[in-house]
Amino acid sequence: MEFPVCVTIRFTFPDNRKSDLTNKAESIMDLLVDAGILPDDNVSICPKLILEFSGVDKSNSGAEITIECIKQ
Question: Does the pLDDT value for residue 7 go beyond 80?
């Protein structure tokens, strides 16, 4: 994979409880590093992070992650 990248995370929640997208995104970014998908989650590797709330779906909640290279 080439760097830098843009990471887009789309969250679908199981209910209408208040949720914090930034806390959830931080966990996912750390997991991407731990899994070796990203070498680090600093701004030189990932200068663009997009967080989206995709709605509520009790039977299909979770996160969809897209990683795209940023052309320099």
Answer: yes
